[in-house]
Amino acid sequence: MLTSTELRQKYLDFFKSKNHAIIGSASVIPENDPTVLFTTAGMHPLVPYLLGQKHPSGNRLADVQKCIRTGDIDEVGDMSHFTFFEMLGNWSLGDYFKEDSIKWSFEFLTDKKWLGLDIAKLAVTVFEGDENAPRDEFSAGVWKKAGMPKNRIAYLPKKNNWWGPAGQTGPCGPDTEIFYWRGKTEFPPEDSNPKTDEDNWLEIWNNVFMEYNKTDKGTFEPLVQKNVDTGMGMERTIAVINGLTDTYQIDTMWPLIQKIEEISGREYIENAEITKAMRVIADHLRTATMIMGDDRGIAPSNVDQGYIVRRLIRRAVRYGKIIGLKENFCSIISQKVIEILGEVYPELIRNKEFILTEMAREESKFRNTIEQGIKEFEKLVDGFRQAFEKTGKLVNQISGKQAFKLYDTYGFPLEMTLEMAIEKGLTVDVNDFDIAFKKHQELSRVGAEQKFKGGLADNSEISTKYHTATHLLHTSLRKVLGDHVAQRGSNINAERMRFDFSHPEKMTDEQKKEVEDLVNGAIAKNYPVSFEEMTVEEAKKKGAIGLFEDKYGALVKVYTVGDDKDFFSKEICGGPHVENTGTLGKFKIVKEEAVSSGVRRIKAILE
Ligand code: SER
Question: Which of 208, 234, 235, 236 for mutating ligand 1's site (highest number of atoms within 8 Å of CB)?
Answer without folding.
Answer: 208
